[in-house]
Specification:
Blueprint (H helix, E strand, L loop, with lengths): L1 E3 L2 E3 L2 H10 L6 H8 L4 H10 L4 E9 L5 E9 L3 H9 L1
Antiparallel strand pairs: 1-2, 3-4
Helix pairs in contact: 1-3
């Protein structure tokens, strides 16, 4: 069992959903540290098929070697306007 936000989750998918429902964003690195998954994209795909509106935001950053890289942050949103607000921050 995985405990996220004080809730016990039976699966990694449940844990990712609880984390997103708490209003927090999630990256692949976060997901690995939080729930031990290296397949966040597959979990997000399945959650979207279940009807959850999860928005992807492309972010530029740096890897552990200091090289420029791109990655994705996932947010659970009710409207695209909310995501655009987050992108502006």
């Amino acid at each position: 069992m995985i405990t996220i936000e004080g809730q016990k989750c039976k699966t990694q998918t449940d844990a990712v959903l609880v984390h997103l429902k708490s209003g927090k964003q999630l990256t692949q690195e976060d997901a690995y540290e939080l729930v031990g998954t290296q397949r966040l994209g597959a979990i997000i795909f399945n959650l979207r098929k279940m009807g959850y509106d999860i928005y992807s935001i492309n972010v530029k950053g740096f890897n552990r070697f200091g090289n420029s890289t791109n990655f994705v942050k996932y947010h659970l949103m009710s409207t695209k306007e909310q995501c655009e607000y987050i992108e502006r921050k």
